[in-house]
Specification:
The complex is a heterodimer of chains A (73) and B (504).
Chain A lengths: L13 E4 L2 E4 L13 H20 L4 E2 L11
Antiparallel strand pairs in A: 1-2
Chain B lengths: L6 H11 L4 E2 L2 H5 L20 E3 L4 H14 L3 E4 L16 E4 L6 E5 L4 E4 L5 H8 L4 E2 L12 H7 L6 H4 L2 H4 E7 L5 E4 L29 E8 L1 E2 L3 E9 L2 H12 L6 E7 L1 H10 L12 E9 L1 H17 L3 E2 L2 H10 L9 E4 L2 E4 L1 E4 L2 E4 L3 H18 L3 E10 L8 E10 L6 H20 L19 H4 L4 H12 L14 H9 L1
Parallel strand pairs in B: 2-4, 3-4
Antiparallel strand pairs in B: 1-2, 5-6, 6-10, 7-11, 8-9, 8-10, 12-14, 12-15, 13-14, 13-20, 16-17, 18-21, 19-21, 20-21
The chains are: A alpha+beta (73), B alpha+beta (504).
């Protein structure tokens, strides 16, 4: 196949790093330095929700490390 | 290249699949040149396929393969491509056959307990579809939510739950397969599509599990089904040293529990890395330097009994139970390691890195030696190159349906891929070569899960498969793929044709 389609001009903010297109690092100079409590809470809750969702794909329930009632198992 | 994708060839592909399922746009081709394994970004454009096709039926796959064989065009099957070894990555351009649209469930047999599928269905989605029947397909790689059955066939992969439920080779009962010449065959255990064990003929099925796209394209699979587990019990135990954790592993692995699905040992460098760079790490005392994780699956009564024995073994071996939160959630995260954003250190500075892991199969007695030598190698390269970071080691049970014997040994290396240049890429391949040599020195195998097809380690394939095994691979490759069109360049299989040429 001809390489014409690889020779098109890059849009603003995109650089060609050895044939790999990436966002121009020059425009990424501001990094988030902190997250609010709300954001942290949301991230943690989202992660827990996801992990329990994954777990449910593998078994109906997870047993605790001890028998739940006297005489169980 | 052994062939050229001309406009006429693309036109023929459009005749087979239609215009919308033939991709020539650069973004569609470039993305299918890469895999999550450390990738030579500086050569990305050179490694892209010329065209991508997305067939939906066996007949379309046959037509594509026949075209490639007739025109001598390299052709590479690709599924989800989460493999960290690059089997799905074309080495000579050509046609990439992206099979992701072949994702239909053809039959759920609740009498003989099989499911027959077009093989490019994802395991998570398959299990969601199977759930109403109360059955389950247990293959569980670290890429569970994103990998695809046909890719698992291509790599012959390992499963986290293999000590309870077996690995891919144990749970694929039979397959429909398109050979490199376009011929369609059925392979299984003997003749019956749903027969699990047969003594008729050769065991040809195994030839097509782990072929890395070099022997054809799987177009249908019949898979084993299991009762969905009523319960699971994961438990993590902390130990003061690697040696303590290593010794504790044996009683867990030999616990005589049929529900034991897997045992994982973390070394001290792994714990150190998690403390250092894993935001989800649950703080533990500094005295904790090694972890043994275990998990049991099955009926609730059996898992409850296993739980009691595993907790007792943990206490008897001096382990400190690390709590329900860590045990449940860390175990759950092991079904999906690809969802974790990763960073590491370069000269003490935090940077985004890609994850690479080696995955040798090593016997228990050799684990300490391999650990020591792999860390020596990794540390030497980390000191010399800013693009690498040593993220420690895991040791997983590797034996199907039993927890003892050999282990999947993983060293995780952080790689700052976007800083790769030819010098660091060559260092990377040399690192892999040295790691693989240690595995062979230990009497092990280079790969327990991913396949050993990448630059560096692949050089040692003829060494591992000595005493005629590699020579037989070459003969089989040439027999089944006379024109070397199917994933050419992989596994050093070009030698099959070079030797034949010399003999002429």
């Amino acid at each position: 196949m001809p390489d014409d389609d690889r020779q098109q001009p890059l849009p603003p903010g995109v650089v060609d790093n050895h044939g790999h297109f990436e966002v121009d690092p020059a425009i990424m100079t501001v990094y988030p330095q902190f997250a609010t409590d709300f954001e942290v809470d949301r991230i943690v809750k989202g992660r827990l929700e996801y992990l329990y969702w994954v777990q449910r794909h593998f078994a109906d329930r997870v047993l605790p490390p001890h028998a739940e009632e006297p005489g169980e198992a | 290249m052994s062939g050229t994708v001309t406009r006429e060839a693309v036109s023929e592909l459009v005749d087979v699949c239609g215009e919308r399922r033939v991709v020539v746009a650069p973004q569609g081709r470039l993305i299918r040149a890469m895999v999550p394994a450390p990738f030579p970004f500086h050569r990305w454009a050179d490694e892209a396929p010329d065209v991508v096709v997305l067939p939906e039926t066996t007949d379309e796959v046959v037509a594509i393969v026949k075209l490639a064989n007739r025109l001598r065009i390299p052709i590479v099957p690709r599924a989800g491509a989460p493999g960290v070894n690059g089997g799905a990555k074309p080495m000579r351009g050509g046609i990439v056959v992206d099979t992701k649209r072949m994702n239909k469930v053809l039959e759920v047999d609740t009498t003989d307990w099989t499911v027959t599928i077009q093989p490019s269905i994802n395991m998570l989605k398959l299990n969601e579809l199977l759930a109403p029947y109360g059955v389950w397909y247990p293959d569980d790689p670290a890429s569970y939510p994103v990998s695809i059955v046909s890719g698992r066939v291509g790599t012959g992969g390992w499963s986290l739950l293999g000590s309870r439920y077996g690995h891919v080779r144990d749970n694929v009962i039979s397959m429909e397969f398109v050979l490199p010449t376009g011929e369609v065959i059925e392979v299984g255990q003997g003749g019956g599509r749903k027969i699990r064990h047969s003594s008729t003929g050769y065991r040809l099925k195994d030839l097509f599990l782990g072929h890395q796209g070099t022997l054809g394209i799987v177009t249908e699979c019949t898979l084993e089904l299991y009762p969905r587990p009523e319960a699971e019990f994961p438990a993590f135990f902390g130990y003061p040293s690697f040696e303590d954790g290593y010794r504790a592993m044996q009683p867990f692995c030999r616990s005589n529990l049929a529900t034991l699905a897997g045992v994982i040992l973390f070394d001290e460098r792994k714990v150190e890395y998690l403390r250092r760079d894993d935001e989800a790490y649950i703080p533990e005392p500094e005295s904790l330097r090694s972890i043994v994780a275990v998990a049991a699956y099955g009926s609730e009564g059996e898992v409850a009994a296993a739980r009691d024995r595993l907790m007792r073994i943990g206490a008897e071996t001096g382990g400190r139970y690390l709590g329900e939160e860590l045990s449940e959630l860390d175990w759950a995260s092991r079904h999906d390691r690809y969802a974790t954003p990763l960073h590491g250190r370069s000269r003490s500075r935090a940077v985004h890195m890609s994850w690479h892991c080696e995955d040798a199969a090593i016997t228990y007695s050799q684990l300490p030696m391999v650990k020591r030598r792999w860390h020596e190698i990794a540390d030497r390269y980390v000191a010399e190159h800013e693009v690498f970071d040593n993220w420690g080691m895991f040791f997983y049970t590797n034996n199907a349906y039993k927890g003892w014997g050999d282990f999947l040994v993983e060293i995780d290396i952080g790689v700052w891929e976007q800083r790769f240049d030819e010098r660091s890429w060559q260092a990377w391949t040399q690192l892999k070569r040295e790691i693989a040599q240690v595995s062979l020195d230990a009497g092990g195998s280079i790969s327990a899960c991913h396949g050993a097809t990448r630059e560096g380690e692949v050089d040692l394939i003829p060494v591992e498969l000595k005493d005629g095994q590699f020579d037989l691979m070459l003969k089989l490759k040439r027999l089944l793929d006379p024109n070397n069109v199917m994933n050419p360049g992989k596994y050093l299989l070009d030698r099959a044709y070079e030797e034949a040429e010399r003999a002429r």
